[in-house]
Specification:
Elements: E1 8-12, H1 16-28, E2 32-36, H2 39-48, E3 53-57, H3 65-75, E4 80-85, H4 90-98, E5 103-106, H5 111-120, H6 122-137, H7 141-152, H8 158-172, E6 178-181, H9 188-198, E7 206-210, H10 219-224, H11 241-244, E8 249-253, H12 260-272, E9 274-276, E10 283-285, E11 289-294, H13 298-303, H14 309-315, E12 318-321, H15 332-346, E13 353-354, H16 356-362, H17 370-384, E14 389-390, H18 406-428, H19 433-440, H20 444-453
Parallel strand pairs: 1-2, 1-3, 3-4, 4-5, 6-11, 6-12, 7-8, 8-11, 13-14
Antiparallel strand pairs: 9-10
This protein binds adenosine-5'-triphosphate (ATP) and magnesium ion.
Length: 463
C-alpha cells in the first residue's frame, strides 16, 4: 500500500502560540504542517521541503510580509498563500491579494474560517481530487470513511435512531434539500456530514458555510466567485461556494442569520443550478445539494418575514429534527463512554472507569449545550481527574446536585439496594420465604413478585 500523500502546509508567524495552535489543528485535520517563527526559518524550510500552502502573517517584525509574499510567489509560483492580518489592515490585505495571495483571514479567526478558505483554494481542490483518486485506487477511502462516520454518531435512544434513519433516507435522495433543526450542540453538522458521506456525492466536497461569519461586502464573491479584475483586489479568478460544491454538498449553517438579499440569490441559484461569477457573464452550471441548519425557530422567522417563505419551502424538502439531549437521556451513557475513550487516546491515559452515579446524576441535568457540552465536560474531567475512575465530583454539574430532589434519585439506588436486601434476608433466614417476607414487612406474594422482578432464584443446593 502506498503511503498516503498529504497536503503540506507551512505557517509563518512571529507569535509562537499562534503557529503552535494552527499546527495542531492542521495535523489533527490530516495535513502535514510545519511552523516557522521567522522568515529565515521559513526560507530554509521552503528550500528543502515541497510546500503546497503558506499561511503568512503580513505583520512580521523583521521584514514586510508583503515583500516576503512577493519573494515566495517569484520562487515558488505553485504555492498558494493565505495571508493573515490584524484588524483594520485592509490596505495590506488588498495589496497582498494583488500580489497573488489566494485569500486572507483577519485575526482573530476560527478554525472553521481557515478550513473554508483552504477548501476553496483551487490547488487544494485539485490536490484533494488527486489524493482521493490515489486512495480510491487502494480502495481505502470509502470504507474507512464510512466506518469512521458510523462510529462517530453515537446514541441508542429511539429518538436518535429515528434521526439516523432520516439521515439515511436523505442520503439516498441526494438531490433533495435537507433542513436540520435542533438546539445548539445537538449534532446538526455531524448529521449533515453523515448525509453527505453516505450519499453518492461523497467523492466531492462537503463545503460548510456560515453566512453570518462573512462580511456583507464579500458575500457575493464568496458564494458566486469572481473574475479576475472585477474589483480592487480581485487579482485572479476565484470559485465561489456554489461552484466548489459542484457534485457535492453545500452546508449552510445558521441560515436564520442569512441576510435578506442573499436569501433571494440563493433561491435563484438553487432553482436554476446555474450561476455567474461576479464581473463575468458566462453562466456556469453547478450541481450542488444544499443541507441547511438552524437552532432558531425558523417558522417564526418566516412569519416575521425575516426569512423568505419561498426559500424556506425550497430548503425544507426533507426535514430532520434532532431532539435535545435531555429528551433522550439514554444516550448519555454511550456518549460519555465514547468521549472518555476518545480523550483517553488523545491524552494518552489508560482505560477509565465511569462511576455509575455519574450517569444517573447527569440524566437529571438540563444540558443547555447538549452533546457539545457533555463532550467538553468529559474533556475537562479527563484532564483534571487524578485516578482512573471518573466520579461525579469530576463533573461541574455537581454544584447542581443540591437542586436534584433526593426523592428523584432514590428509585435508581433503591432498586439495587432492594434486591441486595432481599438476597441478604433470604440468605440469613436460610431461604425461608415466609420468614423472609415477615422480616421485610411484606406479604409472601409480594416477596415472590419481587424475587421474580430481580431474578432472584432459590436453587435446591441453596436451600
Ligand atoms: N451523536 C453524537 N455522537 C458523537 N458526537 C456527537 C454527537 N452529537 C454531537 N456530537 C459532537 O458534539 C459536538 C457538537 O456537534 P455539532 O457541531 O454537529 O452541533 P450543532 O448542532 O451543529 O451545534 P451548533 O448549533 O452550535 O452549530 C461535535 O463535537 C460533535 O462531534
Ligand atoms: Mg453547527
Amino acid at each position: 500500500m502506498a503511503a498516503r500523500e498529504k497536503i503540506k502546509i507551512l505557517i509563518l508567524d512571529d507569535e509562537k502560540h499562534f503557529t503552535e495552535e494552527l499546527l495542531e489543528f492542521f495535523v489533527n485535520a490530516g495535513y502535514e504542517a510545519y511552523e516557522s517563527n521567522s522568515v529565515k526559518e521559513a526560507r530554509k524550510l521552503l528550500d528543502k521541503q515541497r510546500i503546497d500552502l503558506l499561511i503568512l502573517d503580513v505583520n512580521l517584525p523583521e521584514i514586510n510580509g508583503l515583500e516576503f509574499l512577493i519573494e515566495v510567489k517569484e520562487h515558488y509560483p505553485e504555492i498558494e498563500v493565505i495571508v493573515v492580518s490584524g484588524q483594520g489592515d485592509m490596505d495590506t490585505v488588498i495589496l497582498a491579494m494583488r500580489n497573488g495571495a489566494f485569500d486572507y483571514l483577519r485575526k482573530p479567526f476560527r478554525h472553521i474560517d481557515i478550513q473554508m478558505s483552504l477548501e476553496r483554494s483551487h490547488r487544494f481542490v485539485q490536490l484533494q481530487q488527486r489524493l482521493k483518486h490515489v486512495e480510491e485506487k487502494n480502495s481505502l477511502i470509502s470504507r474507512s470513511l464510512e466506518n469512521k462516520i458510523n462510529r462517530q454518531f453515537i446514541g441508542t435512544s429511539q429518538k436518535i435512531q429515528e434521526v439516523l434513519e432520516a439521515a439515511m433516507t436523505a442520503a439516498n435522495y441526494s438531490e433533495a434539500s435537507v433542513l436540520i433543526t435542533g438546539e445548539s450542540g445537538t449534532g446538526k453538522e455531524n448529521i449533515a456530514r453523515i448525509i453527505h458521506y453516505m450519499s453518492n456525492r461523497k467523492e466531492h466536497l462537503f463545503c460548510p458555510v456560515n453566512s453570518s461569519a462573512i462580511t456583507e461586502t464579500l458575500l457575493d464573491s464568496e458564494f458566486f466567485g469572481h473574475k479576475k479584475g472585477s474589483f480592487t483586489g480581485a487579482s485572479f479568478d476565484k470559485m465561489g461556494f456554489f461552484e466548489v460544491s459542484d457534485g457535492g454538498t453545500l452546508f449552510l449553517d445558521e441560515i436564520a442569520d442569512m441576510p435578506h438579499n442573499l436569501q433571494s440569490k440563493i433561491l435563484r441559484a438553487l432553482e436554476e443550478k446555474v450561476i455567474t461569477r461576479v464581473g463575468d457573464t458566462k453562466p456556469i452550471e453547478t450541481n450542488f445539494r444544499i443541507i441547511s441548519a438552524t437552532n432558531h425557530d425558523i417558522k417564526h422567522l418566516v412569519d416575521e418575514r425575516i426569512f423568505r417563505l419561498d426559500l424556506f419551502h425550497r430548503l425544507n424538502t426533507l426535514h430532520i429534527h434532532i431532539p435535545p439531549l435531555r429528551e433522550r437521556t439514554e444516550d448519555i451513557a454511550p456518549l460519555l463512554e465514547y468521549f472518555v475513550n476518545l480523550y483517553a487516546v488523545k491524552f494518552n491515559k489508560q482505560k477509565f472507569r465511569i462511576d455509575e452515579e455519574v450517569i444517573s446524576i447527569l440524566s437529571y441535568y438540563e444540558f443547555p449545550g447538549n452533546v457539545r457540552e457533555l463532550k467538553n465536560m468529559t474533556e475537562r474531567a479527563m484532564i483534571l481527574c487524578k485516578g482512573n475512575t471518573l466520579g461525579i465530583e469530576d463533573f461541574p454539574v455537581k454544584i447542581d446536585m443540591k437542586l436534584i430532589p433526593g426523592r428523584q434519585l432514590m428509585p435508581i439506588d433503591l432498586k439495587a439496594k432492594e434486591a441486595d436486601l432481599i438476597r441478604e434476608v433470604l440468605r440469613n433466614s436460610n431461604y425461608n420465604q415466609k420468614a423472609s417476607a415477615e422480616l421485610l414487612g411484606i406479604s409472601r406474594d409480594a416477596l415472590i413478585r419481587k424475587m421474580r422482578k430481580y431474578d432472584i432464584s432459590i436453587s435446591k443446593t441453596e436451600v
